Amino acid sequence: MIEILKAIFFGIVEGITEWLPISSTGHLILLNEFISLDVSERFFSMFEVVIQLGAILAVAVLFWKEIWPFSAKERNFIKQDTFVMWLKIVVACIPAAVVELSMGERIEELFYNYAVIALALILFGIAFIYIENTNGRKAPKMASIAEITWMTAFWIGMFQLIAAVFPGTSRSGATILGGILLGVSRSVAAEFTFFLAIPVMFGASLMKLLKFGFAFTSSELIILLVGMVTAFLVSLAVIRFLMGYIKKHDFKVFGWYRIVLGALVLAYFTFLA
Question: Are 223 and 39 in contact (CB under 8 A)?
């Protein structure tokens, strides 16, 4: 029963941090330091990635009309703008996919530790504040997903690559930040980031599941499913909140949160752990 409660807590943290620009992977790794699941290291390595599928399913539910490329009302049954959007998303996925396939395990060995997470939290927190102060009042060049160019999509993918390498960066934070720098409006950058997460996280989860195998114990399967369902339900609320929030506010508050959290993590593990 205790492990189920822990899985629920992990799902809540995942559902909140996957979409806010504060790093879900970083929070899950740090959370495991304090509320450790009683599972093998191999299972947790898979769990911290596959639990994100619950959060991704929330995007599919909330934005189904925007992401489904087929319609009986359209000529040839294909919504051209949506189909082109998915091609741009594929372009944005390429950089991180190449690095993950070639260096995924090595990256985990080198960078999945508290020092890297804390530094990434702080540095990207500073970047959020600086960019919002300097770019926040500039009129965006791209105010809809249809206006995102192929080159812009590729460079958003390069920003995502930073998050793929350094835990604590935040995939959503890096791509939203990159989008704003490239002239995409804040709300469109967030929406494109949500859609970009779908193939990225399905691909990452599939790789982790294949590596782990499907020989779950009953308790492992329950822990995974509980975490995913919780992440899904929490994500529904968080995505709605974020899309409303960014219409009236910038991301500086998340920058300050990252800096404070990163400093606390460094202090804890340096002086107290």
Answer: yes
**CB-side neighbour CA atoms (13 Å) of 270:** 8
Residue 154 token pair: 């590729």
Task: Give residue for tokens 């989008």.
Answer: 179
Collapse the DSSP code of 190 into the 3-class scheme (helix H, G, I; strand E, B; otherwise coil) and give the result.
Answer: helix
No. of helices (H) and no. of strands (E), the chain? 12, 0
Find residue 184's DSSP bridge partners. Answer: 142
Contact predicate 96/157, CB 8 Å? yes
**Rounded Cα–Cα distance for residues 31 and 27 (Å):** 6
Residue in the structure block whose two tokens are 């369902």:
229
DSSP lists the bridge partners of residue 142 as 184
Q: For residue 248, how many other CB atoms are within 10 A of its CB? A: 6
Instruction: Answer for the pair 21, 58: CB distance below 8 angstroms, yes or no.
Output: no
Measured CA to CA, the distance from residue 193 to residue 173 in angstroms comes to 9
Question: CA-to-CA distance for 179 and 272, rounded, in angstroms?
Answer: 38
- Cα–Cα distance measured from residue 246 to residue 212, given in angstroms and rounded to the nearest whole number: 38
Alpha-carbon distance 254 to 10, whole Å? 20
Q: Which amino acid is at 101?
A: L
DSSP 247: T
Q: What is the pTM of this model?
A: 0.88
pLDDT in tens, 20-70: 989 887 888 788 888 888 888 889 889 988 999 999 999 999 999 999 998
Closest CA to 50 of 22, 28, 21: 28
Residue 4 · residue 222 · CB < 8 Å: yes
The conformation of residue 77, written as its DSSP 8-state character, comes to: G
User: Helices (DSSP H) in 136-184: which residue ranges?
Assistant: 150-165, 171-181
